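Example: Leucine rich immune protein (Coil-less).
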Amino acid sequence: MGAIKKPNLNNATLSNCNIQNINRYSLERASNLQILDISKNALQEVKSYAFTGAGNLVTLNLALNRISTIDPTAFHLLPKLQILYLQGNKLRTLDGALFTKLGALRFIFLNHNELELIEEGLFQENTELENILLNDNRISVFDATALGTNRLKLLSLKNNRLAKLNLRDAEVEKVLVANNLLEEVYLSPWIEALYVDNNKISQIQADRSNPMSIKTLSLENNSISTLEMVSWMQTLEPAIVRNGAQTIHQQGQQPDDDC
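Written out as structure tokens, the predicted fold is:
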């Protein structure tokens, strides 16, 4: 990518321009740039300190490229970045230091990549983070300590290869984890909505000594055979938990005619 030489520019859209490279001098004069869209290009890697000079970036869109490698220091000079789009690339691993300098990050899109595991502490330094999208990858290992102590609004892990999921200490409001290989899930007291359709779940566990916040539970197409599994969730609002041919109705709700 050629250098941006207009210091007053604050919004640049360069999508679908066949950009193959970003070097540390490409944005050295882009001090006022707040939004940069370089999606739908031919990038294969993001190099060290690639965004030097663009320290006021708030939104960075790198989606739908061919990125398989990101240097651990690539985002280290972006202290104001709030939204990072990385979906639709070829990422398989994420270095543990990759996001540590993104203290203002609120939304990160990592869906539709080739990720296989999410390591401990990956988002630990991102204390403002609200939404993490990791759906449609190949994730078989998810360490909930990757979330640190962040209070998330949304964690999406749909369409992966997870066989187990321990969210005991995860402070997240809404969890989407449909279409995996889960047999059991361990919930935290902070989860308000859990969508685990199309798994193999026979048990949901939680520390019952703590009050639960769960209000919405979707368990369609799992292996639930008894209401005991959900009876202790006193905060659960009227809902239908479908289990293949078996339908369990809660709190006196009448079945629909088409169930």
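The chain has two domains: 9-161, 162-245.
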